[in-house]
Amino acid sequence: MMYKKFICSLLVTSAAWTAAPVLAEPVKIDGLAAVVDARPILDSDVNARFQVVKDRIPGGILTDTIHRQIVNQLIEEALQVNYARKQGIRASTSEVDQAIMGVASNFNTDINGLKQLLANQGVDYKRYRQQIESEILIGKARQQVAQSRISVTEQEIEDFLQNQQADGQNQAEFHLRHIVVRASDVAEARAQIEAIADQIGSEQDFINQAIANSQGQFAIEGGDLGWRKANELPRLFTQAVSSQEEGTLVGPLQSNAGFHLLWVIEKRSQDVAVQQETKVSHLLLRPNEIRNNKQTRELAEQLHTRLEQGANFADLAREYSEDQGSTIQGGDLGWVTPGTMVPEFEEMMNKTPVGSISEPFQSQFGWHILEVDGRRQNDISDQVKRRNAERAIMTQKQDFVLDNWLSELRADAFIDRKSDS
């Protein structure tokens, strides 16, 4: 299922018309769902995206409401890609290659194996690459907009740290669902959000209302925001949900972006006064067009054997490692804090004893070998606290800033939604 969802989420198909026999009417193969500026969104695009979310939709049926939400989602993606191209944002061939290699590694295969997997699902590899490129462009565009529109003052950092200490929940985490109705007309938006709230008596009701009525980017997923740390949520949300029980409807809440409803799925807290840091060195081997995934794993195993026999880790890292950031230093990454590495890396790092070499293991980036040189318990310094505070404030502002940016893109674009679905 995971593979199926992944393939569907990146599948974009093109329109096609075929000529029927002489005197017959042309037969339409693919319909048009919408046009964004000069870019078409096809019925096949909608159907492919539906495969991603159908298991989370009540009944698993492509209703008119679900169709509308998916079209809205595809329109927003097209707007962002168009913006990126106009701004001169590009995704290099190497960036696309690296992303695809990461996907291949996740499925424990190489490029040729991935191509075969795609072909088995009827996915054209060239079009698959185009969609990967679009995902990279959207990510870069959103990052550029966030950096240009969000600023954090020293006073905001001071206030954040004081509030965080007063609240005592800097380590609290919340799993929430979210509905937003934008306030172009405040009275109308307020009436709409209150009417939605009246229909919600359970989490399933919330999911149904989010899919049908929310104007947020996670609407099609039932408004699921996933797990968010308290300091990554807007303070409006954190204050509203901190004292609420799980399974509670919260709101309506009003912000500059509109009116909000929240559903508290779960809460958890991690009261950690100090954090463990690990001093680690790293050797990375990436599969490529010349050396497939199996051959890359075999090379990693050969290097691991040499290390067990007494070879110097730094020397082998300088000779073989393909991690540009650490190769010159003999693979030395210094002191690594929790949450800074991908899960596979962090899991292997944490279970490898000090003074030991890890077994070769695979992540989205390739095959790794680690040498753990030390561990320490360290109080988070004021500098780190301030940096974390700045990052958290940026995250709090980001959702609203990007929502406003998307509203601007919609207002400036030619968007033609086709009525027939």
3D architecture notes:
The chain is of the alpha+beta class and 421 residues long. Helix content is 48%, strand content 20%. It has 14 helices and 13 strands. It has helices spanning 2-9, 43-53, 64-86, 93-106, 111-120, 125-149, 154-167, 186-198, 203-213, 235-241, 293-308, 313-320, 343-351, 382-412; strands spanning 17-18, 27-28, 32-36, 39-42, 172-181, 224-229, 248-255, 258-269, 274-285, 332-336, 361-363, 366-379, 415-417. The strands form 4 sheets. It has a 4-stranded antiparallel beta sheet. Strands 10-9-12-11 form a 4-stranded antiparallel beta sheet. A 3-stranded antiparallel beta sheet has the order 4-3-13. A hairpin with a 2-residue loop joins β3 and β4 (39-42). Residues 1-28 have low confidence and may be disordered.
Topology readout:
Blueprint: H1 2-9, E1 17-18, E2 27-28, E3 32-36, E4 39-42, H2 43-53, H3 64-86, H4 93-106, H5 111-120, H6 125-149, H7 154-167, E5 172-181, H8 186-198, H9 203-213, E6 224-229, H10 235-241, E7 248-255, E8 258-269, E9 274-285, H11 293-308, H12 313-320, E10 332-336, H13 343-351, E11 361-363, E12 366-379, H14 382-412, E13 415-417
Antiparallel strand pairs: 1-2, 3-4, 3-13, 5-6, 5-8, 7-8, 9-10, 9-12, 11-12
Helix pairs in contact: 1-2, 2-3, 3-6, 4-6, 6-14, 7-14
